[in-house]
Design brief:
The chain contains 6 helices and 8 strands, in the order ββαααβββαβαββα. The protein has about 200 residues and is an alpha+beta fold. The chain has a domain of about 130 residues: Gcn5-related N-acetyltransferase (GNAT) (Aminopeptidase), CATH 3.40.630.
Length: about 200
């Protein structure tokens, strides 16, 4: 069971549960063709996003295998919603999970995706005590693949034409990180911070 204390704070972001007032921002995120290009669904209508938002508002923790937590990613300065970040509990027995991040296009390349995804890794490894967390993306989504590698996730598979994606066969990349690798990276970060003091 994982029930985070909200908001989750990073250097520049606040990750929090979705609220009713997020409808306009979430609709914008989920209706832009450039945002959903590599996602399994196309641009969504306001009515579809309203249903999705109502579901997300109720999902504020992870209680059992199969649960998915999707958080609003907002700027600490001003509270602007710039995307969402997710943690899915794939297996209780094998202690496995999956992370994801969907940003608005104007916030690409600023390191926000890495910051939000790192917070989700911390939730999974630190809060849920997972052993292994994966990330997946369409092989054409080079930015997502780079983000996972910058997080320290290993590229483990390039699955050829494994899914019928919006009418065409698409390749998928899978990256992963173990809890021991995450802890080692946390130790390196802490040592670098101490060395700068």
């Amino acid at each position: 069971m994982l029930q985070p204390d909200y908001p989750i704070e990073t250097k520049r972001l606040l990750l929090r549960a979705f609220v009713a007032g997020d409808l306009d921002a979430l609709h914008r995120l989920q209706s832009l063709p450039e945002v959903v290009r590599y996602l399994m669904w196309g641009p969504r209508s306001r009515a579809e996003v309203t249903d999705i938002l109502n579901d997300r508002i109720r999902r504020i923790g992870l209680a059992a295998e199969g649960d998915k937590l999707i958080l609003a990613v907002t700027l600490r300065d001003g509270g602007t919603l710039i995307g969402d970040a997710s943690l899915s509990w794939l297996s209780a027995r094998h202690r496995q999970g999956e992370i994801g991040f969907v940003p608005l296009p104007e916030y690409h390349g600023e390191g926000y995706g890495r910051e939000a995804a790192a917070a989700m890794l911390a939730l999974g490894f630190g809060g849920l005590r997972l052993h292994r967390i994966i990330g997946r993306c369409d092989a054409r989504n080079a930015a997502s693949a780079r983000l996972m590698e910058r997080l320290g996730m290993r590229r483990e598979a390039h699955l050829r034409e494994n899914e019928l994606f919006k009418g065409e066969w698409a390749d998928e990349l899978q990256c992963a990180m173990l809890a021991s690798e995450w802890r080692a990276r946390q130790g390196k970060t802490a040592r670098k911070s101490r060395d700068r003091i």
